[in-house]
Amino acid sequence: MMYWHAASWVAALAVLGSVVLGNPSATIPRQAGLPIPASCPGVTATSRYTLAAAEGWRYTLLATGLTKPRGLIFDTEGHLLVLEAGKGLTAHTLGSNGCISSSRVVISMAQLNHGLALSADGKTVYVSSSPTAWSYAYDATTMTATNQTVIVKGMNPGGHNSRTLAVSPKNPNLLLVSLGSNGNIDGPAVVKETGRAIVKVFDLSQVPAGGYTYNTQGWYLGYGLRNEIALVFDGNSMVWGVENSGDDLTRVAAGGGKSVDVHIDNPAEELNYLGDPSVSNEKWYGYPTCWTVGDPSVIKDKTFKVGQQFMISPNTTFDDASCAAKSTPPRLAIKAHSAPIDGKFDKDYSNMYVSLHGSWNRQPATGYKVIQIPFRKLKSGDYDPVAPQDSGTGYSDVLWTQNEGSCSSSSCLRPTGVLFHPDYSRMYVASDGSIGELYILYKA
Ligand SMILES: *[C@@H]1O[C@H](CO)[C@@H](O)[C@H](O)[C@H]1NC(C)=O
Ligand SMILES: *[C@@H]1O[C@H](CO)[C@@H](O)[C@H](O)[C@H]1NC(C)=O
């Protein structure tokens, strides 16, 4: 059955309270600005899964039938730009009811697969394929892009192939480009000059003719980062990375012995503090040697806390203590195999919202949801998660698939891009699963 269970759809509508059943354009009134639609005309759920939202939150399906939507951003005219992997860049006009009233293709290019960023003035759009990042002159009035120019070239074409792009709000001449590892355990990537498992920063005001070469130019925003897909700016324009960590890990105690499967809850996915992109950060975050403990109980040869780092096979020259001395551990551990894709802070930087694409290497499955990580501002002025570093539970679910444990990539929500509306009245959530949806998620 390819439709939502009617009962759960009605239940979802019932939760929406003020909805007038039978009136598809009924909206929940807001004090000002764009209304929040409770449903959108002609948009019907065709997924077989049922979503649920945390108390105080609601969601509305805005669109289906997009081609693997990934990056989301608003242009200066309030159009929602969506990077559709394998298709290109599309622009979506929001009608006065808050639903999508029209859509157009801005860039038709099958190689585009994830990255999307806009310059501070909104006049340049950045998009990426696996090996290349380009800029285009962008006209928000006509939603057209012209003058394709290579900004970064020569990125590793294999392995993890999304290239997250982000423009620093505080230093709008800085473009961040994340590049993951070539595989699960990419040995050579322990050296940052390999140009993998790193985040790099490039000065947009000095792009050389033909573009920067990824491996040899620009500067670092950390290395030993297996696949830092989500790059998130806090209120000081400092960067947080959310990392997709390894699969199928085992542990052999120091001195040898039996290999123990620890992979169900290890290694944890990571929330890493990468810091100020205007200066080179050459800290090593551990990959591919030091992995973050998610569940210490299955590593029986040694006592760990959640969030500390362990080796698969400690030896006489490098062991878990070497990890503690040399690697920068994550600020927060996130459940293993959740697959974080994107993140955004709310208006006052008191929460970071992160999309978890969902696991393939864990039974029962996990992820397939959007989480909220509470943050606070320290006396120093820095932003920091509320939960301590050894908390494995420093976040909560906001929007999730009800049968999370039995989810597969084709049968559940696959959240990718998350983006607040410019007035922070709602969050847009893309899902690149079987039906390519766009939702709004909002407090009500
Ligand atoms: C195209 O972009 C390049 C690089 O930003 C710039 O030097 C050039 O002037 C632009 N060409 C046009 C026709 O706008
Ligand atoms: C110990 O492990 C480290 C880190 O993986 C590696 O670089 C080193 O070659 C290993 N040493 C021995 C003696 O196996």
TrEMBL record:
Task: Give the Pfam families listed for this entry.
Answer: TrAA12
The signal peptide annotation in the UniProt record is 1-22
What's the domain of life for this entry?
A: Eukaryota
Q: Which residues form the Pyrroloquinoline quinone-dependent pyranose dehydrogenase beta-propeller domain?
A: 53-443
What are the transmembrane regions? none
Origin organism of this chain?
Apodospora peruviana
Mind listing the UniProt keywords for this protein, alphabetically? Signal
Question: Which named protein is this?
Answer: Soluble quino protein glucose/sorbosone dehydrogenase
Q: Does the keyword Signal apply?
A: yes
Q: Which Gene3D superfamilies match?
A: TolB, C-terminal domain
